[in-house]
Amino acid sequence: MDPTRPDPIVTRDTDFYWEGALRGELLGQACAACGKLRHPPRPMCPHCHGVERKVVRLSGRGEVYSWIVPRHPAPVGFAESPIVALVELEEGIRIVSNVVGAAPGQVRQGLPVEVSFEPTRGGKAVPVFRPRGR
Amino acid sequence: MQSSLVRPAAIAGIGQTEFSKDSGRSELQLAAECVKAALDDAGLDPSDVDGMITFTLDNSDEIGLCRCLGVRDLSFTTRIPGGGAASAATLYQAMAAIGAGIAENVVIWRAMNERSQYRFGQPQVSGTVNPGGGTTFMEWCMPFGAQTPATWEALGAQRYMETYGVTNEDLGRVSVVLRKHAATNPAAWFYGKPITLEDHQQSRWIVEPVLRLLDCCQESDGGVALVVTSLERARDLRQPLVRIVGSAYSLPYNVEIITNYYHGDLSIMPEAAAVAKRLYRKTGLGPRDIQVAMLYEAFTPQVLKQLEAFGFCGRGEAKDFVKDGHIELGGSLPVDPNGGLIGEAYIHGMNNVAEGVRQVRGTSVNQVSKVEHVLVSSGTAGAILGRG
């Protein structure tokens, strides 16, 4: 079956993130000068104000920080309501994503998860997370 | 205290259209009608208006509105970002404009056909990023199924609830109070329609396990306007004095308006806590000096978090504060006696600001007795209103 998930909105400041997802890589943005990681991506470092940035490969491991299941109106592009989660990565940044391969009753704060990737309807991809052992 | 060098400001007029699900007329017409009503209330003529404030999200144009009203010459306009978070911030901007002497009679308006023409509650999955709309970073949410304001709010609120053991039933008690208030307010959409906690618990999930249908504000058509002028001028106008005793704004680093996931601890509301601190410092007042709180509540968890941020109770204690009856009419701190955005209408928070004015004047249909000070909060902004 063709993917139905909505495509991400790609901008000049965030394209690397989605391009990485298409290659199966979870990428973050760090300042090329001071090295500090930041999310969401942005064109200037808030610490040293450098505009040069580098793309870094993230571990893909983290924990569920919070989670919900949107029921109504039904989310566009999903056959069943997804579990939407805020995932806190080992590197200390939070990203919005999904928990897949788990029932809502299994999800809780602190649930260990690891990254996986799912395709979108327009041929792009997004990072999602699966439960993992500690 | 506010500097004595700054000219104090007062709210001299309020006006509103009916609140409905289908206004049957343009948003510009709603804007013109509510502004004219506010000017009439104040005893001012449109030719007296020289300042205009609205939300970045308002679809009506200042020039179009001036053409309707016959406003002769504006010396000041501004628009406030942040969706409904703009509501209390309009007072802050008006106070600043009056204080600085760059305008004499400032009109604030918000008018929308947010039910018949478009619906904020429907999923958004495409389009461009909307700077200043309060949902600037929703681009990070949409491909994951978080496509509505309810989902954006709930993802943060779930952390608050799990941290403090707040249940959906606790949220339901907020909704029951607001619908009780609306039930005796003829202007409210839910006039004469109170709910029970059981009704709340039987309403369908919008976002599990946080928000049921009855935790969500309405979608409404309508317009609300205010006229702000100098305290000195207001003394000579038609209505009882309603002074803007103080106002404050705060947008801390890494705080977003509703997709607010990146600041340190999502079980608190740092923007509201900072507003409270500034507001109390500027006015010399504290939570015990406030008799009515007009709290922005697109969704019930926002009431709990603001009660804590403004120091009406401790962190994690808001659910018990509500359970003990404090926020009801007759309680120690009635919240949104008009029924709020859940019970009266969702005019992006401005109908709550107008009710704050009525509570100080002593003219609300659900009047709280002995009101000295009313807090108006929309999260990133707040104001304390009081008598002259």
Write the layout of secondary structure elements.
The complex is a heterodimer of chains A (134) and B (388).
Chain A: H1 15-22, E1 27-31, E2 37-38, E3 53-57, E4 61-70, E5 83-89, E6 94-99, E7 112-119, E8 125-131
Antiparallel strand pairs in A: 1-2, 1-3, 4-5, 4-7, 5-6, 7-8
Chain B: E1 9-16, H1 27-42, E2 51-55, H2 62-69, E3 76-80, H3 86-100, E4 105-113, H4 149-164, H5 168-183, H6 197-202, E5 205-208, E6 211-212, E7 221-230, H7 231-235, E8 243-249, H8 270-283, E9 292-295, H9 301-309, H10 318-323, H11 340-343, H12 350-361, E10 373-377, E11 381-386
Parallel strand pairs in B: 2-3, 2-4, 9-10
Antiparallel strand pairs in B: 1-7, 4-7, 5-6, 8-11, 10-11
Helix pairs in contact in B: 1-2
Oligomerization state of this entry?
heterodimer
What is the CA-CA span between the terminal residues of chain A?
33 Å
The CATH superfamily of chain B turns out to be Thiolase/Chalcone synthase
CATH topology of chain B: Peroxisomal Thiolase, Chain A, domain 1
Secondary-structure element order of chain A, as H and E? HEEEEEEEE
Low-confidence stretches of chain A: none
Q: Tally of extended strands of chain B?
A: 11
Which range best describes the helical content of chain B: under 10%, 10-25%, 25-40%, 40-55%, 55-70% or over 70%?
Answer: 25-40%
Shape of chain A: globular
Low-confidence stretches of chain B: none
Major sheet attributes of chain B? 5 strands, mixed
Calculate Rg of chain A over CA atoms: 15 Å
β-sheet strand percentage of chain B: 15-25%
Please tally the helical runs of chain B, counting DSSP H or I stretches of 4 or more residues: 12
Q: Helix and strand string of chain B, N-terminal first?
A: EHEHEHEHHHEEEHEHEHHHHEE
Instruction: Give me the secondary-structure category of chain B.
Output: alpha/beta
Q: Beta-strand level of the residues of chain A, as a percent range? A: 35-45%
